[in-house]
Amino acid sequence: MKTRIEIKNKNRHFHRVTSWKITASSLVLLMLLAGNSFGQQKLAQSGFDFLNVATDPRAEAIGEAVTSLEGASTSMFFNTASMARLQNDLSLSVGQVDWIAGIRHFYGSVAIKPFGGEYGVIGLNFRSVNYGSLDETIIANNADGYLDIGSFSPTAYSFGIGYAKAISDKFAVGGDINYVNQNLGSSITNINTDGSYTTSTSKLNVISFDFGMIYNTGFKSLAFGMDIRNFSRQLKYVSESFDLPLIFNLGVSMNVLDMWNIDSRSQSLIITAGATHPRDYPEQVNVGAEYTFMQMISLRGGYMFNNDVYGVAAGVGLHKDIGGINLGIDYSWTPFTGGFSDVQRLSFEVAY
To answer: Coil, helix or strand for 230?
Structure first.
């Protein structure tokens, strides 16, 4: 995947370079048509790639194969339809991702179910990226090939509102509207004869949309899901046009202990799989598993096929109901290859 910032070794020098009565078949057709459009796009041509970084530790720990899983407020980062059957009246989550190269992602989400969910579930979400203070350079005719001219601090963030509703006992839909902003600071476009610089600001924002659905088959807990994320207009920095990292996901999951009629409140073993069709990198297949004991302790593992920098993921979750308030903490670990540091995610959740 291409990014807008090029890292030079350890010195951290950077060059700026219609109706509510939607049928399942019509929504599926819409998503399939959108998915087919990816084949007409070039790979590695998207921007705002911080949107590709998974936030929730649970999702990452099971290989990001969460498209068909019902969840809480963090579902808005994956498939908003997943929060249509929110178990609590309110779900709140905040977390942090210790990404590569010292970059940190922060996020939060909240979902509420007014009137017992009769009119659906409403949610708010945000994410931001802290790239730190970076050395700014320009190309120069010297021994190093560049000249230090100070530092800059790029920023990126998004916030949005989501809505999900269970249309029937089998079918749920959801969607988000998000405001996305990225600021790479001021770029030097010319060196004047008096030694001063002519600069231009590299800042863009856009409105993006996410859509998703989940279909419960009626056979035990077997469910299918699909979603499309980061749909927006095209953007341009100076003369180069690019799109957001549009991605189309399909997923299937099931609590396999249902086959033996084991009460999920005592223990469950969810097996899940997903296929992703992104705009900016090759297709991937993700698989994962989550074992939960007494709705308190969860052990998770996953694998992402056809990924050139990471594949294995693992994690754990601890949740406890105290006085009608459910408190939870989730953690995931993802080892990277190619000299990158391992990535860790941590989140806290409150629901009641």
So the answer is: strand
Other beta carbons within 10 angstroms of residue 29's beta carbon come to: 11
Percent of the chain with pLDDT over 90: 69
Distance CA 48, CA 237 (A): 12
Q: How are beta strands 297-304 and 284-293 bridged, if at all?
A: antiparallel
Could you give the number of structural domains in the chain? 1
- Nearest CA to 164 out of 152, 180, 155, 177 is that of 177
Helix (H) or strand (E) holding 29: helix 24-37
* Residue 91 domain boundaries: 6-351
Domain-embedded: residue 1: no
Task: Decide: 123 and 76 in contact? Cβ < 8 Å.
Answer: yes
Cβ-Cβ contacts under 8 Å for 42 (sequence gap 6 or more): none
pLDDT tens readout for residues 310-333: 999 999 999 999 999 999 999 999
pLDDT tens, residue by residue, 96-139: 999 998 999 999 999 999 998 899 999 999 999 999 988 888 88
- Checking 193-198 for CB contacts under 8 A at 24+ apart, the result is 197/149
Residues paired with 198 in a beta bridge: 190
For tokens 């008096």, the residue is: 194
Residue 238 lies in a domain: yes
C-alpha–C-alpha distance, residues 95 and 251, integer Å: 24
Q: Which residue has the tokens 């004869």?
A: 193
Give domain status of residue 34, yes or no.
yes
Q: Which strands sit side by side in the sheet containing 13-15, from one edge to the other? A: 6-8, 13-15, 134-139, 146-152
Give the CATH number, domain containing residue 90: 2.40.160.40
**Tell me: the pLDDT tens digits for 218-249?**
999 999 999 999 999 999 987 888 999 999 99
Does the structure show a pLDDT above 60 at 176? yes
Rounded (10°) CA dihedral 242, 244, 250, 253:
150
Half-sphere exposure of 144 (CA within 13 A, CB side): 10
Q: What is the pLDDT of residues 17-60, one digit of tens each?
A: 333 344 444 444 444 444 444 444 445 578 999 999 999 999 99
CA atoms of 278 and 49, how far apart (whole Å):
12
